[in-house]
């Protein structure tokens, strides 16, 4: 029998997303967000949900753009750090030793050190209570060549993305391939 835990933000896994923005002065900022993911296929869109108090919030609204980097195992401390401090108080890129790269397509930066980034144009906002959901149209996806598979697509085992455990506030890794989607369930067709 299942035990009721009540209404909580428990979902496994959640991504560890590095949201890049420029503030009003043009200073690059990066934050760690777990409330997000792909939300539409056509046009390709991603969503991130932020509280209005977050420093990145006003930047997304003003610039109508953001980037979403994929946090990886090799940069776990850096990814965690940018979620602990505010860009109002520190230059997160400088302190964490990350390199800001100006997107050529949207008005937002990304960190060179994370292996994959989505460059997004703000498409919609939705007020959800204490969070605002930003829906960004994915204008481009950039991936380090070393993180690509033989088919030219991102290889999850080379990217080594972090996933967040909402229940215990921990970072985890992804494991090996267990089966091919849209294939392993065909025995019941």
UniProtKB/TrEMBL annotation:
InterPro entries: Flavin_Rdtase-like_dom (IPR002563), Flavoredoxin (IPR052174), Split_barrel_FMN-bd (IPR012349). GO terms for molecular function: FMN binding; oxidoreductase activity, acting on the CH-NH group of donors, NAD or NADP as acceptor. Gene3D superfamilies: Electron Transport, Fmn-binding Protein, Chain A (2.30.110.10). The keyword Transport does not apply. Residues 9-164 form the Flavin reductase like domain. The keyword Flavoprotein applies. It comes from the Bacteria. Keywords: Flavoprotein. Its cofactor is FMN. Belongs to the flavoredoxin family. This is Flavin reductase family protein.
